[in-house]
Each structure stands twice: as structure tokens, then as C-alpha cells.
Design goal:
Two copies of one chain form a homodimer.
Chain A lengths: L5 E6 L2 E3 L5 E3 L3 E6 L3 E9 L1 H16 L15 H18 L1 H6 L6 E9 L5 E5 L5 E3 L16 H7 L6 H18 L7 E7 L5 E7 L4 H20 L4
Antiparallel strand pairs in A: 1-9, 2-3, 4-5, 5-6, 6-7, 7-8, 9-10
Helix pairs in contact in A: 1-2, 4-5, 5-6
Chain lengths: 236, 236
């Protein structure tokens, strides 16, 4: 979510290759240079593919001195950073063409890129598997990737750009909670990152485990409040 | 939903063949013989395919005297009725084999079958595109078909088998409302049907249009109550 006062990112950590092969991997990647930039990349899709993109982006940062290829650390704007991710996606898709012929799902990944680079305001992009992207505006201040449908109704009703980052973090957590109750492919722990506008440093980054008392209390009081809300509405 | 005191069915009416070809068709079909049976069939999937199934089921009712093929009106139990629907699905899939070769989506349909036949209790089935089916139990008192993800979280939290049919009708309406706010492929009017256990007749059947004051009042007060519920939960 891109708010007036900052940005909030959330991702789950479940990866599965079938019901009997479930593992925990972070899908949140952060590049930070104090007082200059904070860039966050969230990933969804095939883990082999999305990990390769992250590795390629990191390699390009190591070799970007004198190179013509844009890297996340040499980009002068978030638009250039989004182009850099798009370019990495296309390179990796070209590289994996043989794999893709057998199974297109193997080179499938979508991304949310957000952050701020000194000299411009905070920006948020949804990058597609083809490497092209759209940018969030105040009409649509959030993006979702992956298993997004279960958690969308609460976002559509509650999300506004004038929320505090704390309220937005709660909203994203409840959106994930809705999904996790209905779908096994999404699972805790949840990674959360809060960025305050013009700070050029990560304000808060935490991992909420399922048995975290803070998370449990929020999930339970939401469940209770939701049932009360339901009872308040008149029957047909 | 199959409740202790009755059953409630809901379906939207939107059919689309692309964004620019949207039409209204009921997806709720009812067979009733007073004091003997109420059978409701909800459909999702390709309209040409699901309409053919309904036509075939009706043809088999007209010709079932002396025929060996089970029909919805000659079935002695809801299990036999589910078998009759499964059989119609398989016949139509066989018939459309040529079509299916080009595009499997064209012979795609899923069904919810529910009701009560004198001599046994009310029963609810989810019938798959292959014609096989599962039956609701008190552990899982409801089924969804079609675009089901957006509307599932509220069902998972609120649905219980001891709800009144009126409360359950409100719940199904709010579940549809969640979906309609987030996805254009589902749209009003909503068809609702209430059946009271052991009545062997439809108690209430109505169509709620988007501008129906009753529907609007419920949707708005739910939206308000949801936002209040969100504010009640402590921030992270």
C-alpha cells in the first residue's frame, strides 16, 4: 500500500510444490542505502524463477559500476528501478525458454516493487510476468499478487490513502488472515515492513508468527468484531 | 447452505462471454411437487453446457414413465437425484466430445443440488464437472461454485448449521456482495430461495435487484459495521 504518510508491505512465507511439500521462504526483499533509497520487492509465483530474478538483480548491483545495465542501486528513479526488474524478468525468461516450452508455469512470477529514491516521492508498481508494469495512483493505492481473491474484499472496503501506516499494517494482516483461513497455499509467518515517507530508511520490519500473541489478539478480536457486525445488520 | 431448520440457496444472474457481452440468466432451477419434494439446482460454468443439462433433466422428467433412466421427479432419494444430474452431465459431455476437443471450457459446468424428498431428510450435494459429487455434512454445511473465493472468508467465519434461514439468507447476500464489489463477473440481481425443513414446498423465493431498498440497506449497514469492526481492533 502507498499511503500519504508512508508505505506498508506484507507477504506470507509459504511455498509449496504440492500439498506434501510445503516450506518457508521469505518473499520480501529489501535494498536500502541510508538517506538515499529504500526499495522493496515482493514476489509471487514459481520460487525457482523468482529467486533467480532476485539473484540476477543482486549480481547486477555488484557489477553496475561502469555497466550500461540499470541496477536497483544505480537507478535514479523508481521508474528506472521498475525497468531494471522488468529487464531482469525478460533476461531470465529468455534464459529459461527451454524450460518454459515444457511448462509455462515454471517461468511464472509477478512482483510488487515499491519504495522511494531521493529526489522523488514514494512510488509503487505491479510488475507482470512479461516485465511490463503499472503504477499505483491515489485511486488505487494498493496492489496484490499471488492468491489475492480471499483478501481483496476487506481491502476494497477499508483501504484509503490517508490511513496511518499502523492501521494499514493491521489491514494487510487481516487481509492475509482472511486468506489463510480459507486457503492452505498461504501461510504464516507474515513479513511486514513499514516505511515512513521521506525517511529513506526502513522504519519497522518484523515477522509475525502464527502464535505471536500480538497477531493472535488482532485475529481473534477481528473475528469477534466481524460476527458482531454481522448480527448488527437486519435479517432479510 | 443446509441448516438444521432448513436450506437457503443463492445465485447471481450474470453471464458473460467477454467484458462486452454481459447478460442476465437465472442460474437457479427449481422442481417442486407439493408435499412430496423440493429440488433446487444451481449452476456455474459455460452457459450453453449448463442450459443443456437443465433441458436434458426436464426431457427426462417428461419421458420417465416406464423409462429406466432416473429423473429428478422419479428419484426416491436426493442421492438418486444427484445420480440423475451426474448422469445428465456425462451424457452431455459424451454428446459434446467434438466441441470439447477444441476447447475443454465449453463443456465445463459445476452444480449445487439440494432439497428434500419425502421419506428422508434434506440433503445438499456439490456435483463436479465429471458428474461425481460430494455431500454436505454438519462439519461443512455449505457449498459454493463459480467465482467463490472473494465471498468465502465471511462464510468461513459466520456460517453455522444452527443459524435461522433468515440469518443465513443475509449471510449469503453479504457473501455475494463481497464478490460483486471486487469482481465484475458476478452481478445482481441475486436469486434467493428459502426452504423450511419438512415443508416440502418453497417457503420464499425472491429476486433482489441492485437498487432494491432492502438489499441496499443491508449492504450499506454491513459496509459501515465492517469499518467500525476494523477500527475496534487495536493497531499493530
Amino acid at each position: 500500500m502507498r499511503l500519504e504518510s508512508g508505505m506498508v508491505f506484507a507477504s506470507d512465507t509459504r511455498t509449496n510444490a504440492g500439498m506434501d511439500n510445503v516450506a518457508t521462504f521469505s518473499k520480501m526483499h529489501v535494498w536500502e542505502r541510508l538517506d538515499d533509497r529504500v526499495i522493496v520487492l515482493l514476489t509471487a509465483g514459481n520460487l525457482a524463477f523468482t529467486q533467480s530474478i532476485i539473484s540476477l538483480l543482486n549480481e547486477r548491483i555488484r557489477t553496475d559500476r561502469g555497466s550500461k545495465t540499470l541496477s536497483l542501486m544505480s537507478a535514479e528513479t523508481m521508474f528506472q528501478a521498475a525497468l531494471a526488474v522488468g529487464d531482469a524478468i525478460r533476461s531470465m525468461r529468455d534464459n529459461e525458454k527451454g524450460v518454459a516450452k515444457g511448462n509455462a508455469g515454471l517461468v511464472n512470477g509477478t512482483f510488487i516493487l515499491g519504495g522511494q529514491i531521493r529526489g522523488e516521492s514514494q512510488r509503487l508498481f505491479h510488475i507482470y510476468r512479461e516485465g511490463n508494469f503499472i503504477e499505483a495512483t491515489s485511486d488505487t493505492p494498493y496492489f496484490q499478487i499471488g492468491e489475492h481473491k480471499y483478501g481483496k474484499p476487506i481491502l476494497d472496503r477499508v483501504a484509503t490513502i490517508d490511513m496511518t501506516p499502523g492501521a494499514a499494517a493491521k489491514l494487510l494482516l487481516l487481509s492475509f488472515d482472511s486468506t489463510m483461513r480459507s486457503n492452505l497455499s498461504v501461510g504464516a509467518p507474515i513479513d511486514l515492513l513499514l516505511y515512513r515517507k521521506d525517511s529513506f530508511s526502513v522504519e519497522d520490519r518484523r515477522r509475525l508468527h502464527e502464535n505471536d500473541p500480538r497477531y493472535q489478539s488482532i485475529a481473534q478480536s477481528w473475528s469477534r468484531a466481524l460476527k458482531e457486525a454481522f448480527c448488527k445488520v437486519d435479517d432479510l
